Amino acid sequence: MGRGRCLDALGELLANELALLRRAAVEGKRTNGPTEAKRFGLIFEFWGADMKSKEVFEVCHQRYKGLRNFLDGSAGAVKSADLDLPSSGYHWRPNRGKACEYIADFERIGRHGLRRPEWKGRLRLFETYFVNGLEYDRARSAVGVAAGTFDYWYQEVKKTLGAEFSRTGLFPPSKYFHP
Asked: What's the rounded Cα separation, in Å, for the pair 22 and 45?
């Protein structure tokens, strides 16, 4: 069974499960509780509904870094094809305009999410470590805090911005590029 058919079947299963739970709630019937809820939760987990904010941030940041590399590598350089080597297969690439929009939105939403006056250090961490890509020790010294503080802020930035990326539509990236 192909991936598309599998996802369609899973979507159908999800719709049926949801209909059963709603019907039981409307009719005032008790459900099998944990069993049905567990199946329903597992389906949602597969679709990414239970992703934590930190994981959302990591997915968006990976896409951000990949697009930055894609744009840096495609800035006018013409690559020739070596017909003796086997093809590496199809690689999806967005158009340059949409890739630039995603990069700009990632940075704009990140700065907006960390705009509180008392979070200036966290904003500096975001810009040095996540946007500019400095390695850990150099970013920590640029921010000017101890390792423990940097690690705590690192987790806070990921959690805060992951929720912000979900809220503003930057996540999931597939929806961003194919509305």
From this structure: 19
